[in-house]
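User: Fold this; tokens only.

Assistant: Input:
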Amino acid sequence: MRFGSIIGWAAFAACVAGPAAAAGSADVQFKQPERFVDAGETPHERDINLRLLADQLQSLAAQHLPAGQSLQVEVLDVDLAGYLRHTRRGDLRVVRDDHDSARIWLHYALVSDGRTLRSGDVALSDLSSRKAPGFGTDRSALGREKALLANWFTQEFGAARAAAN
């Protein structure tokens, strides 16, 4: 391979990677997760579920926040959708209707250049999110909870990138 084509490929990679590297970020902390209403049956399951929620918030921040902005989130409590039913084949999370909605309580602060742009305490529930486009289509682990966070995030911060550019 010639040196010129290597430089060409490197320039192309920099252009593709540039927007992803310029995205905002999220720092997610969990306040006393062992006291959460329902984040999992065991400490291991709780850790996995909370990691999934943190990953979702970090992904949303990277997609929607402009470079230089950081979302600091302290998750205060989690109540996963449904309830756990123990069966011979393993545990199954059952979601019936509105009584089994997902709930997440959090405190957040949107920070840029060391100053807080916006902050607040939020009690999220998927009762209001169920009518949102795409809600309930994610069948992956914690699909309802991820949709709940995505719906809140886009309502609260969706226009942040457009306003900053």
